Amino acid sequence: MTDKHRLIHITRDTHRVDIDLVYATPRNFTGKPIYREAHCLLLEPAEAALRKAVELAESIGMSLLIFDAYRPPQAQKVLWDFLPDPTYIAELGRGSNHSRGTAIDLTLIDGNGEPLDMGTGFDEMVKASEHFHHGLPQHVQRNRLLLLGIMHAAGFTHIASEWWHYELPGSRALPVIDNSESGPLKLM
Prior knowledge:
The chain has a single domain (3-173), classed as Muramoyl-pentapeptide Carboxypeptidase, domain 2, CATH 3.30.1380. It has four helices and seven strands.
């Protein structure tokens, strides 16, 4: 496997990010842990883009909080089985870019260590979670645009339905990575 197809561990110490992998907890929309162990992984090109996003956030006195990154295809199936809605969950035949190691779910943290108000919670599968949902307060719109600007400048793109989701452009051309049994992300 070449470096650009290698999953890299993301940690607080190595990447200057906060990590709260909610799928290793019951604090996700399924209400139960999906991962037995919380390991944050990204494919090398996504990891490089994350480093750039960290630098950009730090340049304005902020940092990043990661909710999810690489997701084994078996975990994607758990999510699809719970909520089979392609607006929010990638269909199994298509595969999620999380399962390619090129997608990341995250938010911004201010200089006091508090997440910025994004108007909805992470993984809140509602219309108000759309990036450009009308009717949200100005400060929420500003916070979402700030995250969007940082992530786009770092080389990521977004999907319309989730303010927290970013991925590398062209990710669909990459294969899904099945790291569920041999790797550190073991399923419940």
